[in-house]
Every structure is written in C-alpha cells, then in structure tokens.
Specification:
The complex is a heterodimer of chains A (about 350) and B (about 425). By secondary structure, chain A is of the alpha/beta class. Chain A has two domains: about 1-130 and about 260-330, Periplasmic binding protein-like II (D-Maltodextrin-Binding Protein, domain 2), CATH 3.40.190; about 130-260 and about 330-360, D-Maltodextrin-Binding Protein, domain 2. Chain A is about 40% helix and about 20% strand. Chain A has 15 helices and ten strands. Chain A has helices spanning about 1-20, 35-45, 60-70, 80-90, 110-115, 150, 170-180, 185-190, 195-205, 220-225, 235-245, 270-280, 285-290, 300-310, 340-360, and strands at about 25-30, 50-55, 75-80, 125-135, 160-165, 210-215, 230-235, 250-265, 300, 335. In chain A, strands 1, 2, 3, 4, 5, 6, 7, 8, 9 and 10 form a ten-stranded mixed sheet that branches. Chain A starts with a helix and ends with a helix. Chain B folds into two domains: about 65-160, no CATH class; about 195-415, MetI-like (MetI-like fold, Orthogonal Bundle). In chain B, about 65% of the residues lie in helices and about 0% in strands. Chain B is built from 19 helices and two strands. A two-stranded antiparallel ribbon of chain B has the order 1-2. In chain B, helix 14 (about 285-310) packs across helix 16, helix 15 (about 315-325) runs antiparallel to helix 16 and helix 18 runs antiparallel to helix 19 (about 385-410). The chains are: A alpha/beta (about 350), B mainly alpha (about 425).
Amino acid sequence: MRNYVLTTLLSTVVAVGMIGTAQAEVNVVTWGGAYAVSQQKAYGDTWKGEKINWINYNGGLGEIRTQVESGAVTWDVVDVLPDQVRTGCDEGLFESLDRDMFAPAPDGTPMDKDTMNKVPNDCVAPNIFWSYLAFYEEGTFKGEQPSTIADFFDVKKFPGKRGIHTWPNALIEMALLADGVPIDKVYEVMSTDKGIDRAFAKLDQIKEHAVFWSAGSKPIELVKSGETSMSLAYNGRVGAAVLNEGEKLVPIWDGQVVEEQWWVVMKGAPNVEAAKKFLVHATAPQQQAAQAKWISYGPMRKSALDLIKANEPWHHKGVNIMPHMPTREEVLPRSIFADPAWWADYGGEISERYTAWMSQ
Amino acid sequence: MSTSPAKPGGPVLTADGTPLKTSLERSLKLSKLRALGLILPPLVFLVILFVIPIGSLLTRSIDDGLSNKVLPKTLAAFERWDKTSEPDEAMFEALYLDMTAADRLDLSKLGTRMNYEKSGWRSLLKITARGLNRIDGPPYKPAILQLNKRWGDIKFWQSLGAMKDPVTLGYYLKAVDLKYDGNKNVMRVKKHNRIYQMLWWRTFLVSTIVTIGCLVLAYPVAHLLATLPLRLSNLLMICVLMPFWTSLLVRIVSWMVMLQQNGVVNDSLVSLGMLHDENRLAMMYNFTGTVIVMTQILLPFMILPIYSVMKTIPPSYMKAAQNLGATPSLAFIKVYMPQTVPGVGAGCILVFIVAIGYYITPELVGGKDGRLIGNLIAYHMQNSLNWGLAAAMGTILLVAILTLYWVYDKLVGVDNMKMS
C-alpha cells in the first residue's frame, strides 16, 4: 500500500515536472469566428516556432485579472480592446515589451512610428482597426440613398427600423455627429453634461424605431430579413457578407467610429519568451497585411496598408479589399477614432444611463 | 478488559493501572479523531468552495482600504476642510506628498476606484501622476492646477468624502441607486442613471412569473405522470427529461428560431391571416422572451418534485373521498391537493431560487428590457471590473434567497419539503 502511494506521488511529481519543462507552446487568446480564422491563417500558418494553442474568449479583463492576481497564469498572448489595454497596463496585468524587438517598416521607420494611431504604452503590440458603421441593403430605399450618419438617424427621410447595439460605445459619438457636431469637437462636447444630454436627445429620435442587438452576426440578419431597414454593425461583418457571400449590402462610411485592437503579453505568462517571439512575427508588416486577406479589418501599421494597396486584388477570393478597409484615406476625414481615455473615464456612467434609457 | 477491584473512595482502574475515566476519554478521543478524519474531505471541500469565497465576497463588498493607504494625508486634510470653500494650499500639499510617495500600481488602481464616485478621476490621477516630477517645490496649488485645471473643480474634492473610511457601505448603496455625498449623507443618484432598483424589481417580477408559470404548467403534467399506466407514463417521463438533458444553448437557440420577428410563430400567424405583416409580435429580445424561455427551461425543476410527491399518494384516498360523497373535483381539492403541498413548495422554491440568479438566458434573449440583475453582476465582474459592486449585488442576492428560505420554513416548514 505504502509503495503504491509512494509510486503514485513520485510519478505525479515527475509528470508535473515534465509539464513544467516540456512546454514548447504559446497560448494565444483571441475572439472566435472568422476573425480568429484570419489570425490563424495569417500569423499561425506562417509561424515556424512553438506550437500555438488558439483559445477563444469574450473580451473583458475579468479573467486576466483573476489569473494574474491568483498567480496561476495560463494565457500568454491576448488580443484586447483599447480600454482594456490601458487599464490592464496601468494595473500591471501585462508585460512591458521592448520596443526595439519589433520589425521596422521596409523604409526603416520604427514600429511605434509606423502605426496610424498613438501607441498608448509599452505593453502593446499593434494589431488591427475595426469600426462601427451603418449599412443597408441595395433596393431598400427608392430614389435618394442614405449616405451620411445623419441619414441613419433620420427616420422621416429614410423610413424603417434601425438596428443598434445594447451598449453605448460609438453610439454617443454618432448621435452627436448626426446632430451636426464637427468631428474634431465630438469628444469636447461629450465631456460636458449638456453634450451627453444632446446625444441622448438625438438617440430619442430613433428609440421608437430601434431594434437592439448584441451578437455581431445579428445586424446582417436584421437587414437581410427586412426587420430593420438600416443597422449599425462591425465593418468586418458587412465586409464578409459582401466579399464572401456576395450580399448586396452598402456600408455608410460617413460617421464610422474606428476602434483599435491590440496584442499584449500576460504578466507572468508561462511562455513569455515564445510569446514575445510570436508577437514579433505577427506584427511584422507582411503578416499584418496578410490578415486582411481573410477579413476586412485594417492593419494598424501604415506599411502594411501600403503593402495591400500595392498588391490588389488582395482578398483571398480575388477581389479588391481596399473598398472595405476602415482606415483607407478616402474615408478618414469623416471617421472618428474612438477615444479610449474618454471611455475609461465616462464609460461606466454612460453605460448606466444607456441601460436606463434602453429599458424605459 | 477487566477492571481491578475498586478501592472504596479511589478511582476505578483498568488492567494496566490507569484510571478508567482517563482510559475511556483516550479511546473516545481516538474515535472522535477518526470520525473527524472521515469527514475531513467534505469539510475541506466546504471551506474551500463555500466559506472562503463567500467570506471574500463579503469583504470585497465593504473593503475601501486603498484610498486610506494611498492618500492618508489628503484624506486628513479633507477632514479639516469645510467642503464648500475652495481647497487651500495645505490640501494640495498633502495631495502632492501622498502622490509622490504612492506606488504607481496602487495609484492607478485607486484611479479606477475613485472613478466610480466621479467620472474623470481616472484620467485626472493619471495625468497628475505623470506630471509630478515637473513640480519642484511649494507652492503646490498653482503647480498642480497647471497640470490639470480639473483640480480646481470642487466636485472632485467633495467626492473624496465617500471614500474616506476604510470600510464602506457605498457599494451596497450603489446597488440600490443610492450614494454618499461629500458629507457621507445618503442620497439618490441622478435620475437618468438609476438602473439597479428597476433591475431588482424586474428580476423579482420575472422570477415570480416564471415560478407561477412553471407551477401552472407542471401540476397537470406531474399528475398525469403519476396516474397514467406505466407504459404511457414512461413515455411521458422521457418527454419531460429529454429537454432537461438537452444543452441549454440548443434550447435557447430553438426558442430564438420560434419566436423572433420572422420566426416560426410569427410566420404561421401571418400566413393564417391572424396577424398583419406589419404588426408581427415582438416575443424575442425583450421581457416576454426572457419569461417564455426561462419558464420552459426551468419546467423540469417543478415537474420532478411535484411528481415524486404525487407518486406516493395512494389512489385509494381519492376513491375513499368519493365513496364518502365528495364530487371528483371536491375530492381533488380537499384530499389530493393538500397532500401535494410539499412537492409544490419544493418545486416553487427551487425554480424561484434558480430564476432569481439566472444569467445565460436573459443575456441571450433579454435584449433591451429582459436582462436581469445576474447580467449586471457578470458585467461588473468581466467588463467594468467593479468587483466591489458585483460582490455587494451578489451578497444582496444571497441574503434575499436566505430570507426567502427562512420565510418558507416559517410558513410551510422545510421538513415538509420533498425534493424526491
């Protein structure tokens, strides 16, 4: 009996020890669906290093904070949203990354200068841009077609229901834009109580006509089935429906709200060196551009976007991807880049107000 | 074991000369230890899975020690301040000293915490912390004001009042749409930010409707199950259990297919001419959807306890009642139904308790006005990271359930409850 116990104990120790040493893997945590597939193809299939375990999650810092605080970190690389990247880095949940390890652009520009937005801290590695935008199906409206965000809020001119999401991000910005606030003044106006009231007053105009969605696949369904005449959506979903399925959907680029998405390495990650190597690979211009072959999200690095432009048709189905890139030059003047710092400050309060507004 | 002859007045001894009392105690102690050893695994299990998490839940929900740890001098200066005049140099000096001494990580965690009291604290602390090294000595007030003019906004200073004590009820207040003002008086939050009272009420309402709905649907089914001939009742039992064994998500998605605007139900009603195409019913992504789907999902929890009680009621009772002159319905009401009360009680309490903390169904089908308190708890755990508030809400939920259980015990008696 004692022998048996001893053997079991010993073999457990040995097994645990082997797990500890034999880990030639990287655990990459990202979002599911077509987006994860694009990453597996662009970054995973071209990667010659350690085995990659792709793990899905639904965002949020909850799990990340739990892992770091309990000291039982199992994730290595995580794909995170802009507000999380700031809060998480401030709270010490992510490793800080040596800026010199990343590949420069072909013309020698260092990576941090090659991104289209400001790099917020030392924890991040560039990933993609995506956007919230309005869209409709061809043939929905007779005569004049909607072309601006103001049209989305105008149910008299363009009748029918409107699909909007169940959280306030991007909606506040769009409402103010539609109400005539100039793009560069939007966050200034949003920082005042009056400005928020103004945004909600604008939202009131479509409230009676609103159908609320929370899953990213829903807007396409809403518009195609005719339940709503227009909807807001993630640009990648609209792009996929048009490019992959041949749907006749028309995105309204005016007033789109562009969001960033970053890579980070978990503090105390079990495979920290492999994780960093993987990020160096995934953030190289070539790989960043390759990602857009599979889904219409904009690479964060300018040099990657240039690569796509020069090599159209870039989409894997042999069509041009640039018309669906949220960061192409033509649409930038009427786009808002979401301000994560503003949302970090006011997001909680606005979410409460939006929830109350939604269910009244 | 033989005892030596008792000496009058002396203790009774065992064979080896120790007093019988001591020997008995020793052997009792040993068997007690053995018993303890046997229950040790479940005990450890209980401590790890219940006592520790619930304890940490309770502490999280009232802990507010961070502000005192990071800003002791500032809070002391705040106490001396009259809360209405413009903050003076002494307060800014205290702030400067606290912030330069503070750990960077603590400071950003505190920023998150303070932002719950007043939006804007997070960036204010961050910007200030970044600029501190540019300040080279007193006077601190103009220097800090220059870093960010919001420091001149008295509302930020006043909000410190809600955080000055290391133990707070602030999260509990927040969970019912109340808050502390600068003098720690309780007041209501701004009108258009009130959501929690409404959500508590909605959660209670949904749970009640679902419980009643389950009872109404389950009672006849359970009765059928208990009275049909075995062959038929087995078939019916499978019909009850099949959905119970089916994945929750599958059941929810099938309801989506059925109930959405262009779903099976609406399409059939329109094609039958009972509904105009423009007036399709909104039965999904709202309150109605949550109630319908939750009722179906929780139905087995009502059927099974009622069935198990009904099964034990001898059919001869009903016959006896009718022999004695009762009509079938009177016999059912006077004789049969009272005997099913333990099952009904168990079913109701089971369904209500599960419903009140329900999360996944309302998340998927709740849409604009069918989401419950459980969804807000998850939101604060995963997204806003306001774990204190999530813990306070969880505690309120726990207390509500325990109260309910207590009331039930007083009214019906827990001993009367039959789960199976």
